[in-house]
Amino acid sequence: MPDITQQTRAHPPETTEGWYVLHQMMRWDRAAARAVAPDQRHVLHRQATEVLHRLATPVAGGWSAVVPLIGSVADVLFLHFRPTLEDLGAAQRALAAIALFDALVPVDSFLSVTEAGLYHASAQLATAAAARGGAVGDEAHRAEMARRVEAERASPHVQRRLFPVQPAEMPYVCFYPMSKRRAPGQNWYALSLEERSRLMMAHGLTGRGHAGRVVQVISGAIGLDAWEWGVTLFASDPLAFKKIVTDMRFDEVSAQYAEFGKFYVGKTVSPETWLSET
Q1: C-alpha distances in Å from residue 61, one per residue of 18, 33, 88, 150, 226
Q2: Active-site residue 20, yes or no?
């Protein structure tokens, strides 16, 4: 009988991707900002407002948001979703061209792409390949995986994950990066695909327990950034972030294998509101 565990052990799950995402965290150089003459400040605010509104609803698709941050080393988060990496680059250049933003200093950034991980399907098809004497990646496996990916991608649930809509009724935003541990005895990448699938299914159930209170956007960053995933949360009450992250940390997969980066929290506002308060 084939050793299914060994045959599936090193295989990553299949994923399907959507929009590219860029998080830009910046702080004001207060001295530079104060040095702008009042009459010139009015002109620069108007120019910045026009550009930020264009970025919010780009012709190419996607959207951008301005999120003033609270309790952070940065003052503002610019959040961009775009269909292509080049579209993100255009948004980045548009911000950099705003004269007022010469007084903004980059603090952090995160580049990723919205992602749906197909752990369950990947584990099922790996087991099926081993049972028939085949292997992951052979012609039959690739054909069935392509069919499963197409079916998953067509579902409304996956579409919402890959192409998220900015939830107007949930203006609070929380972002943090994360990776899976590779420590001895806690190496996520040494687990069998079946075990990773089991853990991620349980993890998903924990998150779904907060449906209606928190919208979660998961983006993959492997090969794009130092961290492996980004988590962007939206809520109508910032306490919802504390509740869901607490539940997630007690979840088995996070308790054993998750490493978290810096958290950024704020509230989405219009460009006019943000600029009037700076």
Answers
A1: 12, 32, 11, 22, 27
A2: no
* Residue of 20, 172, 176, 257 marked active site: 176
Closest CA to 272 of 102, 81, 53: 53
pTM of this structure? 0.90
Question: b/e map of 265-276 (b: 16 or more CB within 10 Å)?
Answer: bbebbebeebbe
**Which residue, 84, 138, 78, 73, is CA-closest to 107?**
73
By the 8 A CB rule, do 19 and 83 touch?
Answer: yes
Contacts of 195 (CB under 8 A, 6+ apart): none
Cβ neighbors of 197 (< 8 A, separation 6 or more) are: 13, 119, 120, 122, 123
Per-residue pLDDT band at 6 (split at 50, 70, 90) = very low
Which region, left, alpha or beta, applies to residue 242 given φ > 0 means left and ψ of -120 to 50 means alpha?
alpha
- How large is the angle between the packed helices 239-250 and 193-208, nearest 10 degrees? 150
- Contact between 234 and 215 (Cβ < 8 Å): yes
Q: In the structure encoding, which two tokens stand for residue 126, read together?
A: 């790996």
* First-residue to last-residue Cα distance in the chain: 68
Q: What is the pLDDT of residue 94?
A: 96
Q: Which residue has tokens 């998961």?
A: 218
Instruction: Give residue 1's pLDDT band: very low, low, confident or very high (50, 70, 90).
Output: very low
Rounded Cα–Cα distance for residues 205 and 6 (Å): 27
Burial 158-182 (b: 16+ CB within 10 A, else e): beebbebebeeebbbbbbbbbbbee
pLDDT at 126: 74
Look at residue 215 and tell me whether its pLDDT is greater than 80.
Answer: yes
Amino acid (1-letter code) at residue 127: T
